Amino acid sequence: xxxxxxxxxxxxxxxxxxxxxxxxxxxxxxxxxxxxxxxxxxxxxxxxxxxxxxxxxxxxxxxxxxxxxxxxxxxxxxxxxxxxxxxxxxxxxxxxxxxxxxxxxxxxxxxxxxxxxxxxxxxxxxxxxxxxxxxxxxxxxxxxxxxxxxxxxxxxxxxxxxxxxxxxxxxxxxxxxxxxxxxxxxxxxxxxxxxxxxxxxxxxxxxxxxxxxxxxxxxxxxxxxxxxxxxxxxxxxxxxxxxxxxxxxxxxxxxxxxxxxxxxxxxxxxxxxxxxxxxxxxxxxxxxxxxxxxxxxxxxxxxxxxxxxxxxxxxxxxxxxxxxxxxx
Length: 328
Hints:
Blueprint: H1 2-25, H2 32-42, H3 46-49, H4 51-63, H5 65-74, H6 76-94, H7 102-132, H8 146-149, H9 152-176, H10 179-202, H11 204-210, H12 212-220, H13 226-243, H14 247-269, E1 272-274, E2 284-285, H15 293-327
Antiparallel strand pairs: 1-2
């Protein structure tokens, strides 16, 4: 159950914060007027979307403390980099209008755009390293130098992450904006679809090479094939809706594609949470990485209540956003 909770919250974060990361990744390609429109589109909700990242970390810390300790110590440089990028992204967006100077706005735009694209890349690299496995020792710890973290497979997953979230962001702008910005976003979304489709297919063989168990877990349990089927169906639906100019549905299909990718990774790794690299025998799983029964019994009461409260808040916030845009 807690494995499912964790996967759900990570998927919520990537879907919700993913489109404003994608908007940010495209930010420097826009004109100044279009940047105003794009930041206005994500302005009311971008900060709230990051709640799901904190919630995911909270579940990892509370329910799987050994995994939290191993991952955050072994990938410490990446964690600090993520924190700096989150801070830079927030400062770039929030301080953009604090000084009426073109140079100031350009600097804030650069920080916001580069931080957004870099975050998408770093998250992809982190996922690539989890799939590939890490050199866990008998005590459940590991250390990866920077250039070992940036291995070929992880970098490919990072590039794929940028392509997927940029497509997600372009689909959002195509749906939520108007005028020249909407037209430009639609052209980008169509072009980026080919990049994410090519990488989606092209990464099958490297993933099998990096962790054969990922694919055998799916074929040995045929019901799990529903998740890659969801990703493939969503990718086809995204292409179809783009061609029919149904951008609201295209954005929904992009969200489902992300959900399909992440759930495929989750069921492919299950029951591993932090798998050991080939040749290492000390993977952290839902069995040896879990907290004690007292924590689990307490959390199973309080955590769903917090999740329902967060869900209610998001429904209210997005409902106000939709009603506000209609009123405008």
